[in-house]
């Protein structure tokens, strides 16, 4: 057991290897969006995805203080009350885990085994980060800003408080929030109470929960989560590239009704309006295409109105299910920067930022009499 | 695929068979209690376990009506407003899924693969069911009362709305509620909005969500969920016994901090106060024992105050972790009826009502300098 705790490299499953109890244990803790919840513009509390590296810590809101230190003109120590008295902003933001889709990859990197449900959209209320950093006064030598949470654990042999760094340019973007409310209520414990960072457009790892410290650095941040965990690489021994902004993705709300065990959908022949959501942290979504033949042919879906730059966008597509039989429904998003979801898996060693198109198996049946 | 949908018997995994994608897909949807949330008397919204057989339906609360029909003197059709104007009661109830522990069984019945996290405690507010049934007037010929939800799906070849029956005696017990609030807010969609049954003491399958109809029957209810799904049996071809009330169980809040991938706990040598919860639907909890040597020896834990008959009870135990090395922590509950948690698995063909003792692997280490 101790040997396993000291393994420094994540494992890749054998090609025919099923899911392990370790992976199942993570899946049982880290909850995903039930896909029928794609019907909601804003994900109701309890259905937003949740990824917790270690344990959900208990943080006393009354005693909570956020420290801002390092390469600043003046250090700050801010109470929750002080934070709440600052400028108040609410932003609708779609967050997605960087590991979403990992369990669909072949071979499968062994970690939290998301299929495609690690996403959610919330109304986050808080205060913009940039004015607070301006108040502290970043020194001209400032390079990165590190955000440290109260959550503590061991990961590949490294004991740590969860921490992530952003460049000064990224950290001072106007959309970053120190959030203390989610969907109009105080942050639930599992989403980072009392205060978390929300970095719109970035995969969820950047939005540090249970925030306790902001440290301005004169060197690039070299913490585990930036330099080891959230990296795109093909082999274990290369440094790789950082995981950053959310790649375009569309998901469809599975039509009809499910079989309990397989989650295969049953739909009657006839017309169905397929609906779903699409998002990209890289640029606004410009289009969604749907395939009802497993990706052989594609047709344009209709986009709903934008709900702001950082929230997913609804889409719909009329499907005539003419003949009984099996079908596979797919959808894919494109953004204004020309990024398109791939139909071939974007495999990488740690299973990061996979936006492989979703495949929804359905059985079309003759109308029941 | 169609053949798989028509399988009428649930499968049992081969002894060495790992978790399938079908099981993982269910685990990704059906969220469990993160064990550190055992610290809360009342589970915060979003951390209570959730088991949804089919899809979470969208039910319009404004148009919602509860029908009461069958062997009654007068049929009723009740709006949400009318329901809310009736006697209002709040009860703290621990609910547990009947499938909790299934994925620990060897061989493993293939279904929703819970480890031990399918539990939660909420404050349910609603109106007692018994007076409403009295108002409808049960005929002397009444035998069972069936509760039908709006959730629709296919299960082992049977298309159905989720429905469960209770005997008249069980259905008219004073503790049963038609609940419309959870922890002081309207029921979230995933917990049965706008109204669900809450049957304290029973495994969760009895507490029908998205309730739409109550039917009083003059014959025993023969629906799938009573006669096929929730049965205790050793072989696939026997009828088995019904799953009813929650067997005693204790869980401990894992101490120390976790390794990300294995969830193994790291604790320093020295004194630790182990805490947890215990419950039984069969009788009040009378004791909890703790083992720090994997079940070889047991010692009594201290019980906290009762929080009412239907809620879990806290307990604590002082553990002196004297020597560095691996250890396995266990706990087991006993109730006033003399039911004790087993240390050998209570295996059955469908993996129901397993209350096998929890095992929490820890690594004790010398204090860090």
Describe the structure.
2 copies of one chain form a homodimer. The first copy, chain A, is mostly beta strands and 369 residues long. Chain A has 2 domains: 2-242, Sulfite Oxidase, Chain A, domain 2, CATH 3.90.420; 249-365, Sandwich (Immunoglobulin-like). Chain A has 6 helices and 22 strands. Chain A has helices at residues 2-5, 21-29, 80-84, 129-136, 168-171, 224-229; strands at 65-70, 76-79, 89-96, 119-128, 144-155, 158-167, 177-182, 185-186, 196-198, 211-217, 231-232, 241-242, 249-252, 257-258, 265-268, 270-279, 285-291, 299-300, 302-303, 313-321, 325-335, 358-365. Chain A has a 6-stranded mixed β-sheet, with no helix packed on it. Chain A has a 5-stranded mixed β-sheet with strand order 2-1-10-5-6. Chain A is globular and about 70 Å long. The termini of chain A are far apart. At the A-B interface, helix 1, helix 2, strand 5 and strand 14 of A face helix 1, helix 2, strand 5 and strand 14 of B.
Number of domains of chain A: 2
Q: Tell me the helix content of chain A.
A: under 10%
Determine the mean pLDDT of chain A.
96
CATH architectural type of the largest domain in chain A = Alpha-Beta Complex
The beta-strand count of chain A equals 22
Strand order of the largest sheet of chain A: 14-15-22-21-17-18
- CATH topology label of the largest domain in chain A: Sulfite Oxidase, Chain A, domain 2
The oligomeric status of these chains comes to homodimer
Categorize the overall geometry of chain A: globular
As residue ranges, the low-confidence spans of chain A are none
**CATH level-four homologous superfamily name of the largest domain in chain A:** Oxidoreductase, molybdopterin-binding domain
Q: Biggest chain pair contact, residues each?
A: A-B, 66 and 66 residues
Number of helices of chain A: 6
Structural class of chain A: mainly beta
Radius of gyration of chain A: 21 Å
CATH class of the largest domain in chain A: Alpha Beta
């Amino acid at each position: 057991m101790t040997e396993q705790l000291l393994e420094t490299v994540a494992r890749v499953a054998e090609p025919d290897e099923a899911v392990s109890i370790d992976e199942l244990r993570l899946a049982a803790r880290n909850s995903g969006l039930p896909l029928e919840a794609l019907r909601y513009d804003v994900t109701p509390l309890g259905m937003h995805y949740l990824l917790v590296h270690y344990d959900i810590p208990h943080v006393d809101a009354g005693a909570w203080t956020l420290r801002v230190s390092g390469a600043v003109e003046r250090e700050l120590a801010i109470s929750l009350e002080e934070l709440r008295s600052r400028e108040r902003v609410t932003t609708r933001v779609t967050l997605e885990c960087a590991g979403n889709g990992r369990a669909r990859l072949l071979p499968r990197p062994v970690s939290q085994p998301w299929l495609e449900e690690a996403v959610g959209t919330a109304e986050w209320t808080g205060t913009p980060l940039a004015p607070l950093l301006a108040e502290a006064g970043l020194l001209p030598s400032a390079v990165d800003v590190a955000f440290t949470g109260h959550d503590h654990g061991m990961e590949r042999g490294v004991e740590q408080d969860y921490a992530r760094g952003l460049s000064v340019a990224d950290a001072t973007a106007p959309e970053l929030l120190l959030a203390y409310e989610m969907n109009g209520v105080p942050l639930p414990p599992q989403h980072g109470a009392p205060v978390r960072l929300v970095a719109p457009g970035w995969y969820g790892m950047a939005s540090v929960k249970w925030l306790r410290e902001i440290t301005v650095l004169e060197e690039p941040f070299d913490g585990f989560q930036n330099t080891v965990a959230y990296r795109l690489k093909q082999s274990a021994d290369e440094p790789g590239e950082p995981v950053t902004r959310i790649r375009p993705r569309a998901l469809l709300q599975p039509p009809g009704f499910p079989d309990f065990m397989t989650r295969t959908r049953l739909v009657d022949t006839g017309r169905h309006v397929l609906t779903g959501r699409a998002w990209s942290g890289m640029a606004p979504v410009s289009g969604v295409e749907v395939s009802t033949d497993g990706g052989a042919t594609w047709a344009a879906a209709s986009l709903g109105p934008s709900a702001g730059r950082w929230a997913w966008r609804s889409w719909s597509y009329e499907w005539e299910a003419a003949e009984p039989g099996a079908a596979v429904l797919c959808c894919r998003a494109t953004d204004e920067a020309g990024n398109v979801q791939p139909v071939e898996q974007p495999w990488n060693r740690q299973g990061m930022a996979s936006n492989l198109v979703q495949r929804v198996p359905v059985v079309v049946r003759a109308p029941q009499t």
